[in-house]
Amino acid sequence: MSNQDTLVEFNSVLEEWKSNHSTGADPIPTLKRLAELIEHETEAYFKMDPDPFDDRHPGRANPTCTLGHLMKSLFKNEEFMNQLVGTYLMSGRDKKELHTLSCRLLLDVMPGLETSVVFQENEGVVEQLFEWAENAENPLSSYATGLLAGAMDLQDIASNFKEQNSILVPLMLQRLHALQKQQMEESLSSSSRDGDDNKRYFSMFGKDSKSPAATTAPSPLTLKSNGEQEARQDEHKKILKRVLSPSHYSDDVFNLKPKRIKYSPGEKCVISEADQSNSSWAEMQPYVIGSYSMEPLTTSMKQRMILQYLTPMGEYQELLGTTFEHSALDLIFFYINLKENRDVRLAFEALKYLATLLCHKKFAIEFLSVSGVQRLLEVPRPSMAATGVSLCVYYLSYFEDAMERVCLLPDNVLSDLVGYVMWLMECSHDSSRCHAAMFFSQVFPFKVMLDLFDQKDGLRRLFNVISTLSILNVDERSSMLTEDQVFTMQQAARHVCGALKKYFEAHQALKADEIRRSHMRSDGAVSPVQETPAYKPMKLTPEVIQDNTEVLMELLPLRSNWVPEETFHNLGGIQLLTQLVAMAPEWSNYPGKPETIKNALDAIAVCMVTPRSQSILLESVCLPDDITTPAISVIIGLAEGEILADAEVQKSALTVLVNCVCGPIERVGGGVSRIVGSGPKKKLNWKQGEDILSRVWNGIRTNNGIMVLLKLLSTKTPITDADIIRGLACRALVGLSRSESVRQIINKLPLFNNGQLQSLMKEPVLQDKRQEHIRFCKYASDLLERVSGKQPSSVGDASLEEIRRADIVAQTKIIFQERELLQLMYDHLLVKGFTESAFALQREAGLPRCVTPPPLHPSSPHLYSSPSTSRLSRQMSQPSTSHTTASVAGSSSHTNHARDVPTTPGPIRLTVNKHQPSPPQVTFQQKVQLSKLKYLREKENSTQSPSVKLKSVGKPSVDYDISLDKIVTEYLRKQHALCRNPVVTCPPMSLFLPHRCPEPKGWSSAPVCITSRLMRRSVFPPYGGLDGTRSNRKFIYTKFRPVRTYHDGEDDGFACCSFMSSENQLMLGTFSGELKMFSLSTGEETASFSCHSSPIIQLEPSRDDKMILTSTWGTRQDCSLWRYERTVENVFTFDDHYSEFSKSTQDKIIGTRDEVAHIYDVACAEPLQTLHDADKANNYKANIATFNPTDELVLNDGVLWDVRAPRALHKFDKFNSYISGVFHPMGLEIIINSEVWDIRTFHLLHTVPALDQCQIKFNHTGDVIYATRFDDNENLEDRYRSQYGSTLRTFDATDYSSIGTMDLKTKSIFDLCTDKSDCFLAVVENQQFSETGAEESVCRLYEVGKLRDAEDDQEEEEEEEEEVGGDEDDDDDDEDDDDDISNIVESLGDGESSDDNQDEGDEGGDNAVFEAEEFSPSSDDLADDDDDDLDDDLLFDLV
Length: 1439
Known about the structure:
Elements: H1 3-21, H2 28-46, H3 58-61, H4 66-76, H5 78-88, H6 96-108, H7 115-120, H8 125-135, H9 140-152, H10 155-160, H11 162-193, H12 212-215, H13 220-223, H14 226-244, H15 252-255, H16 281-288, H17 299-313, H18 320-325, H19 328-336, H20 344-357, H21 361-369, H22 372-377, H23 384-396, H24 400-407, H25 411-427, H26 430-443, H27 447-455, H28 458-467, H29 483-522, H30 542-555, H31 563-571, H32 573-583, H33 593-607, H34 611-616, E1 620-623, E2 627-630, H35 631-640, H36 647-661, H37 692-702, H38 705-713, H39 722-736, H40 740-746, H41 750-753, H42 756-760, H43 770-788, H44 800-810, H45 818-832, H46 835-845, H47 882-892, H48 924-931, H49 933-943, H50 946-949, H51 964-977, H52 1010-1015, H53 1028-1036, E3 1040-1046, E4 1054-1059, E5 1065-1070, E6 1074-1079, E7 1085-1090, E8 1096-1101, E9 1107-1112, E10 1119-1125, E11 1127-1134, E12 1138-1141, E13 1148-1153, E14 1156-1161, E15 1166-1171, E16 1186-1187, E17 1193-1196, E18 1199-1202, E19 1207-1211, E20 1222-1223, E21 1229-1232, E22 1235-1238, E23 1244-1247, E24 1254-1258, E25 1264-1269, E26 1287-1292, E27 1298-1303, ...
Antiparallel strand pairs: 1-2, 3-30, 4-5, 5-6, 6-7, 8-9, 9-10, 10-11, 12-13, 13-14, 14-15, 16-17, 17-18, 18-19, 20-21, 21-22, 22-23, 24-25, 25-26, 26-27, 27-31, 28-29, 29-30
């Protein structure tokens, strides 16, 4: 019967039941026929040799099988299933036949049935099954037992029926013994009855059985050559066996060629019957696949059902005693011996029961004591029972005690065991491959098993399991695979990666111990490294693995052949594992994805101790869709945590990076891992690995590894692993910092210059992880040492700038006035009441009669400005008397402007009391002193004061090493350390006045006050002195007066703006795609053109105003070039997202689309070049390509291109995800986010933290930067319509110092532009009305260099511009003039105040917050005593 006919008949039977059910017909015939059809197809399904551990629905396991279709048809008929379980199964006691057939049919469909629905939702079913299993007759009893097996797989049901199970389990074991005897009797009678027919038996399994033909006497023609023929045949059979068996793989397969056997003329070819197949498939089928028969119910089927029930019961500890009591192990040994039991499925069920019992350590030991392993190895292969062996050996490997006993077995047994499991890994079902891989991952720590694995070429065979998976083959279409097939392959990859991890860690431990012993012997010491016995497991804890890695990285010779790593390298294993970790993050809905990636990374990390493996990470990895990516980029992406947010994966990826970058520069045993020195000696270095370390460093730089590592230094999530991740990232940076180019970059970053790293060292993220935090602090100190060039003891918690200042302070000779010290001693004696001693000191030292000299005030302003530090903090703690009060009060007047006090340890207080209850706080400067204390003491003793020179004359014998001279010297040194710009050579310091080093400003410097600068222009043309232009810029670009607001009459809103070069007009692009022109003088709309259907986000007119370039965003993103002559005419449109003209001649256009830039010719309207390199792409989310001022270079996606070649010149390191960078108008610098790069050397010049995540635009002259905040929380599709925030900042483009900040009090800023004269600034703002919540995008025009009155509202200002004349403005100017006059008088009359104000101005920070539309100037401008009273022509003449 065909499959289709079976399905048709099955459906017809169901239809017949449906029609007869309403009439109350007998359902027994229907049930019986349905059971027969399902059993017939079940046997056919088993002949397909499915995986016996696959418990999926047959329709899913094999979609083409008829059994699956039958079950689907049956389960769709819910009415029948409800009747079967709820009615037929639970009907009255007298319906035995109905119960039997119901149980039989239900047992037939159990593989595709949801058991929880049957047994948990139908009350009383389980109780009824227990009753039948215990008391009913066969076959009902056996059917009920089989159903109970499915019910007991549910944990809830098994726990609810513990008492019934405790009664039924012994009963079932007794029945098994009885059925075993019955089966043996049946087997004996059957063998005696069929002895004459069965001449050969499959039970021989490879052993030669002499047939009658083979045992008869040979003829005379064959006698003389019989011995030679037999020898040739035996040798041929042995070679053939080795070739055909994967467990006996050898090179004989290449030598096995068909050869003709030549016989002498009188010889005759005699081939014995033993050379033929042992048996036919009909004889082998019961051993390989088995049979299935529910009616009539055979003895084997009865035993199978009992074993299926006992299998879930074997997990319970309380039933283990019953197992021993009823000799369950003897039964199992009988069933798995296929010489006695010819039912292979019965043997499989026995092996499943054995596997659950091996979960108990006591049973496992008992199993080994009775030669259980040898019994397992006797199970023939291939067979279904061999698949069950895989589960048994896997469970057996879980107990170290049991495995130690296994490792003590004879060598031939262990060899057979390893060979057997390897065969399962290669030739058996998918479940066997997984069990075999897990077995090896458990036994690799045992050296004897590891050696046997290597002897049998195990690494290659283990690697082949994943190398043949379709999901890792980029050439095949894995989309053709089913979900279950993909899951099975993912499971195989998971377990093989786990085994590879254990394999390399075990070999790493052996190699590390070998190296340790070797070095100890070479040092002449007795080796304390104790070798682990071969039968004992090696310790492979994370700490031990880390120690072993360190040993191999430091001591493994460069040319040493580490066999496991070399073999894996030759197999291409690292490439495949890297490809796996690159593709695995895309495995959706697979729970084992993080574990798979982690194990693969751990295996890669162990191999990274050799330069040969490190070089592989610099190669590209092939991915689906013809994508290639550098292997190191994959590792960096996983370390970042963006691809897969899993802390364990991040730590493993960071470990790979650490092992790559932290290797020694010079390897033990000769040779180096990078080029050392210069000249012809380079050629003497070994080529293998000579430059690997440098290449790895550059590879990590090129793939933005520095940005990722710096980001991970400040990570706080997940909180339980953040400290470990920080430590690993910091250690990787320590290794990278050995590269001069990397060190040059990172020492310019705010993380090191602003003390951010030191703040991270203060406390751990999680208090329970203090040990990990200590490790992080160690690496951070090493990193600071490498970057700063100082020893760790002198680094402390200081930034690089503080370290530089401390170094200067440490080299300074401290000289002070000794008479001032004696004067302080005289005052102290008077305060304490020692009058006679005080007068004696005064008389002998020749001190003046006055008590304390008055404070010194300069009679004229200083020629040097002073640092802005608090003078009160420089005073030494003194007794509170009238004498000292005067001294302090004299200096208190200098603190009124000291608002910007740099971070210092605080006021200086000296205490020389050794019995102080709490130790004094050690400042940073004191830490610097410790490293050079001896040198400084000698220097001070010889140069500081006369009292020190005399101490050798009559020094009293004291127990302490302290003197008044040392105390005063230390006090003055601390004052010197507080100077912002300390100098090495200082004049004698005063004890009465606070010390401060002069600022490097000469008398020819321009004054801070604008009026003073204007007055000095005749003396110091043209700007009143040095840095006059910088002061003028800070004066002008802190003042912006709103002039006019432009609204869109059609309520669409504006999106971008630009000034016309030759006309007095402002162009505005709208969200509706229109281009509108507005007059600057009248504010009226002069023209409107409909250009696009999408919002215009960028406008740029040519310098002659004849061409206009537009870029759009939305459903259709493109760019267009328009010809403008009173009307606009489209020249051509190109498919880019953003575009701009070239800078010099404007004969080209550069367009940007994602990471690709295109250059177009304006005259021909054709594309010229495409600039894109996938290997160097930074993938900035807001990439905008731009020309340099000479149009010879292009910056696209952080990569510098020479358009004349064209070729990529350099890829700049990536430190942000959005801003791609612009050229500085002077042409020698590139600004990417907050980093400023030198085009000539590609060095990082400095960083400007205030520019972080800011879009910048230069004014027309190129000396001022306008910066608006970039919204980094936008969606990817909104990258070109970003809202930058409401803050507008200005910077001096010459030194990147901050000028001021203006809060527009609006929701966001869309765009801004400046006119050619830099007199006006147009800003497109997105306003939101708080009353209605409505938004409106308007363009506001600001006049640069002027401030409006604070009391005026914006609306009043617009009305007054149209209705009110200039009288009111004149009055305002008069008021401003009065204020300026008074301020100028004050500034000229108080030179000291001007100096202090200039101190604050040098800070360049934003120190004030003003009302809406007012600018927050830098502190320079707070000292400026002026307003907008100057004439406009004079004002802009300053620049």
